[in-house]
Specification:
Chain A has about 325 residues and is of the alpha/beta class. Chain A has 13 helices and 14 strands. In chain A, the strands form two sheets. Chain A has a nine-stranded mixed beta sheet with strand order 6-5-1-9-10-11-12-13-14, with helices on both faces. A five-stranded mixed beta sheet of chain A has the order 3-8-7-2-4.
Chain lengths: ~325, ~325
């Protein structure tokens, strides 16, 4: 395989986040499942927005956050995602370009507005997401620029892409292409409820041999395998997928490669907002993976990136992650 | 005077903030005066926006931030300011309404977009603002709802209103009305460069006897009086203005009332972003003033509100300031 022009290509729902605080009781009163992502209509989004006691607006989207992490670590990253030609869509594009991410998916010319997610942050830092998919669900197979897939060491797909039908086809096309040219297709399971909605599809992908790297947290492993024996589930998954990364929040992460498991602790930090923790862990891990670091070093990079993003509001890094990696003694060519 | 329906009415430029980090060298390379506010065109705003390494979008505007502080302390607040009927304008209105602020100034029907300020935050937490006034400069005398002025214990005006000609007339009308009905007109000097642009006007207002409460920091006092003898300048100002509040950053604040000066220390905190420090100090102070607390208690409330807002990104409070005031043992009826 020739050298790659991009370390990571992220493909995902291009979403603008509206984040704010709520009291614990607000979640209970409105029957919202803490820590999850639910899909809402534009009207429902407005109603949930009114529950926030403050509001900060920041570019988001799982894969978008992940490639922002790769860029902040000094990596070369690209992104495919669909926005509308409105203020949020323009801001999303600006935010990708300012950090040097190649993002040239054509915006919609007509149709729904740019996707937004109203994110309720409780005092414990946990986030509960209410996503209006808008324009993001109209990502098409024709939006998959194969030249960029070919030029990317890792093509990273978010499980949330299984929600929009149109985007699911784009997802398949991208993963097949990455495999066809000898690149790695990586997948994050995204959310336990998302897996419940699409369990058969997720299972089929795991078995297909097309996924070279998978990220899952404990709730997602439960949802995917419908078992409490996570050790057995992890081993079973690792038979099909060369690199399995199981994230366990404050308990750190486990990486299973070629039947060998390595545990890496989380990096201690004061939690302000957990939004983006998994996304940034994946970004750090893949940056190391693309540059040939051993699994434990990849996971350390993931832990550094995740710790930065949960120490402030919003899912995009505010500090220079390359500086933090350097300070931790991690270097990559 | 009858009881007031509002503790504080804020009148100011309705501005959406686009905040992010820059390296120190970026300010030098682009000849930007650290800590100041400069007015820019839409094109200049875009060019400065591209210098940010990350971007967070939050409702801002000096007087808007101040009344958000009053609301977070449990006070009743109102706001006059001009937005356009676009995404930022709608978000600005939502953000005021979600925290219970009475904000019903009619938006523009046509004309420039909602005002934005691109705020460059350096590693020391200092902010440098680049403001495109847009719709905000079209606040008119007819936008001054006298019923709300009459119903407000304090009508608070930001010095930045001297920049747009149209808004300056609205400013005068509001201050005159507040005085005519026996209410307090309060003024913040806003920025040293703003004072240099409008020194004669500011001086005339100070001498007019119409200002009952003024907020100034040290740089603004220097700019207004063109002297290094701040003690003398403070005493001279206090002869014309019943309550003078001089903020001194980490050195705390001095309140001069009836010839008596009281110094109150700043509340120690880790500085993340100084945006809104002065605005929130004014909000806390005026909440206490409207409820009849002594000057030192008012300044303590100001210090609590300022400390919260500089501990995170953005100029709007994220914590419940009423809880923080209660924890500090400050209560008001």
């Amino acid at each position: 395989m020739t050298d790659s022009r991009f370390d990571v290509l992220g493909i995902g729902n291009a979403i603008f986040d509206i984040l704010g605080h709520v009291h614990e009781e607000t979640l209970t009163a409105h029957n919202l499942a803490k820590g999850s992502m639910r899909l809402v209509t534009a009207e429902e989004a407005l109603a949930v927005d009114a529950l926030l006691t403050d509001a900060v607006r920041i570019s988001g989207g799982s894969a978008g956050n992940t490639v922002a992490g790769v860029a902040s670590l000094g990596g070369r990253a690209a992104f495919f995602g669909k926005v509308a030609p409105d203020a949020y869509g323009e801001a999303y594009r600006h935010d990708m370009h300012r950090i040097g991410i190649d993002f040239s998916t054509a915006p919609l010319t007509e149709g729904p507005p740019t996707a937004t997610s109203v994110i309720l942050v409780t005092p414990d830092g946990e986030r509960t997401m209410n996503t209006f998919l808008g324009a993001s669900q109209l990502l098409k197979v024709s939006d998959i620029d194969v030249d960029i897939v070919d030029a990317s060491a890792i093509t990273f797909l978010e499980g949330y892409l299984f929600d929009p039908d149109e985007a699911k086809s784009a997802f398949r096309a991208a993963a097949e292409r990455a495999n066809a040219v000898g690149r790695i297709a990586a997948l994050t399971l995204s959310d336990a409820f998302c897996i419940e909605r699409h369990r058969a599809d997720f299972r089929q992908w795991m078995e297909s041999g097309q996924i070279g790297l998978v990220f899952a947290n404990i709730a997602e492993m439960h949802a995917l395998f419908e078992t409490d024996d996570l050790d057995a589930a992890g081993r079973a998954l690792a038979e099909r997928v060369p690199t399995v990364v199981i994230t366990m929040g404050a308990q750190g992460a486990r990486v299973i490669t070629n039947g060998e498991a390595v545990d890496v602790p989380a990096q201690p930090t004061k939690v302000v907002d957990l939004t983006g923790a998994g996304d940034l862990f994946a970004g750090g891990f893949m940056m190391g993976h693309a540059r040939g670091l051993p699994p434990a070093e990849c996971a350390r990079l993931g832990a550094i990136a995740a710790a930065e993003v949960i120490s402030h509001f919003g899912a995009r890094p505010q500090a220079d992650l390359a500086d933090l990696a350097k300070a931790a003694g991690i270097s990559f060519a």
